[in-house]
Design a protein that fits this description.
It is a single chain. With about 260 residues, the chain is mainly α. It is about 40% helix and about 10% strand. It contains 7 helices and 8 strands; from the N terminus they run ββααβααβββααβαβ. It has helices spanning about 15-20, 25-35, 40-50, 55-65, 95, 100-130, 150-175, and strands at about 1-5, 5-10, 40, 70, 80-85, 90, 145, 210. A hairpin with a 3-residue loop joins strand 1 (about 1-5) and strand 2. The model is unreliable at about 200-220 and about 230-255 (pLDDT under 50).
Length: about 260
């Protein structure tokens, strides 16, 4: 495992068990919630996710075993609090593609990011309608859906440029009281031409979706979690959009 103060870098050859542990939707969600909202107990996370405390406690211990989280300072001696050890999870797509476990993890992480985007859109619309966000956020918010023609090198340069600019702006706005958490999801997914496609110089029909709306104890991770108690015993509450679960660079993200 390579890591620094802010980033956990996964290697599919050395971190097989850790990947297996993280290839679980609830664990990705729990990790993302700890990253976004800070330390919490199993009961607090159960309330956020609609799971039982027994289930969240089990999955938190799995995350701790593989060094994604650790115990935090306790407010009292009655219940453990957990904290995320890194702000994001990173990996090499090329390395992940070489192993079955790596492919499974990346596929799950990307789908969780899409689910996160859907929940975040619903949250954004509700916050705006309820007046929890000011009108200054209306114009810059949105989702872009474009299909440029790029080389692999250009796509890499695009991601590097966006990541660098995002780091710069995040540092600039860190202490600005006007700043809010912004869910930023970027995707670059090349699509091979259909087998029946005409030669490259033939006219291309525009894609229907090309549009832009202006301006991410000893536990075996494969073991099932303890059975949930009866529905009457489950703790439920309103659900926040997670994470920073796993984002493309986390990914949440895993640059959940």
């Amino acid at each position: 495992m390579d890591s620094d103060e802010h980033k956990r870098v996964l290697d599919p050859e050395r971190d097989t068990a850790a990947l297996k542990a993280l290839t679980h939707p609830l664990r990705i969600q729990l990790l993302g919630l700890l990253r976004q909202h800070g330390p919490a107990t199993a009961s607090e996370l159960a309330a956020r996710t609609g799971e039982s405390s027994a289930s969240t406690s089990y999955h938190l211990r799995v995350l701790a075993k593989y060094a994604f989280i650790a115990e935090a300072e306790h407010r009292d001696g009655r219940e453990r609090r957990w904290r995320a050890l890194h702000t994001l999870t990173s990996w090499s797509n090329e390395s992940m593609e070489a192993t079955e476990a790596g492919r499974a993890f990346v596929g799950l992480a990307r789908r969780r990011q899409i689910e996160h985007l859907e929940r975040s859109l619903a949250r954004y619309e509700a916050d705006l309608a309820a007046g929890r966000l000011g009108q200054e956020w209306v114009e810059p918010s949105g989702i872009t859906d474009l299909m440029p023609r790029l080389t692999a090198a250009s796509l890499t340069e695009l991601f590097d440029t966006v990541a660098g600019k995002l780091e710069e702006l995040t540092a600039r706005d860190a202490d600005d009281p006007r700043a809010e958490h912004v869910v930023f999801v970027a995707a670059g997914l090349p699509l091979a031409a259909p087998e029946h496609a005409a030669p490259e110089h033939a006219d291309r029909e525009p894609e229907d979706h090309e549009a832009e709306d202006r301006h991410p104890a000893d536990l075996d991770p494969a073991d099932p979690a303890p059975a949930d108690p009866a529905p009457a015993d489950r703790e439920t509450a309103g659900r926040d959009p997670e994470d920073r679960a796993v984002t493309a660079h986390d990914a949440e993200d895993l640059n959940p």
